[in-house]
Design a protein that fits this description.
CATH class of chain B: Mainly Alpha
Order of helices and strands of chain A: EEEHEEHEHHHEHEHEEHH
Strand order of the largest sheet of chain A: 6-7-8-3-9-10
Helix content of chain A: 25-40%
Strand content of chain B: under 5%
Number of helices of chain A: 9
Structural class of chain A: alpha/beta
Radius of gyration of chain B: 21 Å
Shape of chain B: flat
Strand content of chain A: 15-25%
Shape of chain A: globular
Largest interface: A-B, 29 and 21 residues
Distance between the termini of chain B: 54 Å
Helix content of chain B: over 70%
CATH topology of chain B: MetI-like fold
Number of strands of chain B: 0
Radius of gyration of chain A: 19 Å
Order of helices and strands of chain B: HHHHHHHH
CATH architecture of chain B: Orthogonal Bundle
Largest sheet of chain A: 6 strands, mixed
Oligomer: heterodimer
Number of strands of chain A: 10
């Protein structure tokens, strides 16, 4: 069974149909790149998966279990949405680190607050040992993204590439089933994109399931197991990178691929 | 000059300053949190509450504080036959409501200036709305509103002189009594020094707070 299955997902803003029936599946450990020009609905799709937007209809299934079902009338509570969100991690285009916290605190914050919330629900004291474990885990993750020297720095003291690597560590700390990236290198100077892409490549080697919305065609070509090309709120073409980039069927895909001069 | 007259005048001014200080501190302590509640009302998704709050803010900011003090003091007696016994309490009620309205607008400006991405980053990390507000947004808001807040607090120090309109013996009233009874001019200047020193201390305190929050940008 596919890890993620999206069925006939639609999203409208007023009369504007941003997503017009999106269908795709993603297997565990795969890397999916979503490409396409601005306004094609890539980011909206990612935001729907992370429950930052509510789709108008369609289904999102995780290991066959419905996370979102447009047909079901049942209201989801805020707590349920929080639980569902945790299946996904999201790395933003402009990082959105918490400026008042150090690099280390940025990574531990959500883990610690979740322990506190769980303790509150179960009417017990937060587990001090858990906090110590969170701290160790955060240090390990920051080491993996090459920032062990920067744990006590504040976000404003870091370069864009470093900030984005912290954001990746912060998302990984919650062990999401699927890690999503929304144009993770678009806000970076060209010389800094490499360090972020390198981290994503390493994650691929550890079989992290990822969805990457990107304009880096070279990266999409070499790192993805699967590429989706979106245009006008629809999936215009999908398949292996070789199929989409080297042998596109749709004329729109052909034009896009040619323009991006791989 | 440092004769018994100086000390008796000093004592009278000190007593006036006591009332000023009481009015200032109680108003501040009560209206700062109350303003946050008013602010949430004015930003509510529930439109009747939002409109009611915005009308309230318009009325409070659109009329003189002096008039509000008089209304709070005279209304219960003249309209309902229950005269207000405690003048200071009436002044406090008017001041707290007035300053809560002003503070709420300062808060709103600060909250709306926080990038949406901060909320969304908290959401995708599975945080609750409360956690996002208190652990992520609040200190960033505080950093942004410190300058307008210090303006408002300093204005409050000087607004306390309006209490005399219903004969509460604050600092300026004490000074004016002395000037009228003893035909002396220097107590007026001396009174000014009270305000200057007090506001100077507040400015230093705000400066220290600003410096404390200087460790991060954003």
């Amino acid at each position: 069974m596919a890890l993620l299955e999206v069925q006939a997902l639609t999203k409208q803003y007023g009369k504007l149909e941003v997503l017009q029936g999106i269908n795709f599946t993603l297997e565990k450990g795969q890397v999916l790149s979503i490409i396409g020009s601005s306004g094609s609905g890539k980011t909206t799709l990612l935001r729907c998966l992370n429950f930052l937007e509510t789709p108008n209809s369609g289904k999102i299934l995780l290991e066959g279990m419905p996370l979102f079902d447009g047909d079901s009338a049942a209201k989801t509570t805020a707590a349920e949405i929080r639980q569902k969100r945790l299946h996904f991690g999201l790395v933003f285009q402009s990082f959105h680190l918490f400026p008042q916290y150090t690099v280390l605190q940025n990574v531990t914050l959500a883990m610690d607050l979740q322990e506190k919330e769980r303790a509150k629900q179960e009417k017990r004291k937060p587990n001090k040992q858990k906090f110590a474990q969170n701290l160790e885990k955060a240090k390990q993750l920051l080491k993996e993204v090459g920032l062990e020297q920067k744990v006590n720095s504040y976000p404003f003291q870091l370069s864009g590439g470093q900030q984005q690597r912290v954001a990746i560590a912060r998302a990984l700390a919650l062990e999401p089933d699927i890690l999503c990236f929304d144009e993770p290198t678009s806000a970076l100077d060209p010389e800094l994109t490499g360090e972020v892409l390198r981290v994503i490549r390493e994650l691929r080697n550890t079989h992290t399931t990822m969805i990457v919305v990107t304009h880096e065609m070279d990266f999409a070509y070499h790192v993805s197991d699967k590429v989706i090309f979106m245009s006008g709120g629809k999936i215009e073409e999908e398949g292996t990178p070789q199929k989409v980039f080297d042998n596109p069927q749709s004329p729109i895909t052909k034009a896009f691929v040619q323009k991006s001069k791989l | 000059m440092f004769d018994s007259e100086f000390w008796s005048i000093n004592w009278a001014l000190m007593q006036g300053f006591g009332s000023t200080l009481l009015l200032f501190s109680v108003t501040l302590v009560a209206s700062l949190p109350l303003g946050l509640l008013v602010c949430f009302g004015s930003m509510s998704n529930f439109s009747p509450l939002r409109y009611a709050t915005r009308v309230f803010i318009w009325v409070i900011r659109g009329t003189p504080l002096m008039l509000q003090v008089m209304i709070v003091f005279y209304l219960p007696g003249l309209a309902f036959g229950m005269p207000v016994e405690n003048r200071m309490a009436a002044v406090l009620v008017a001041f707290i409501i007035n300053y809560a309205a002003y503070f709420s607008e300062i808060y709103r400006g600060g909250i709306e200036a926080i990038p949406k991405g901060q909320y969304e980053a908290g959401q995708v990390l599975g945080l609750t709305d409360n956690q996002i507000f208190f652990r992520i947004v609040l200190i960033q808001v505080l950093k942004r509103i410190l300058a307008p807040l210090s303006n408002e607090v300093i204005t409050l120090v000087k607004d306390t002189s309006l209490a005399r309109v219903i004969a509460v013996g604050e600092l300026i009233r004490a000074a004016q009594d002395i000037v009228a009874q003893q035909a002396l001019i220097w107590p007026l200047f001396y009174t000014g020094i009270f305000y200057l020193v007090f506001n100077g201390l507040l400015t230093l305190a705000f400066g220290a707070l600003e410096k404390k929050l200087d460790y991060f940008k954003g």
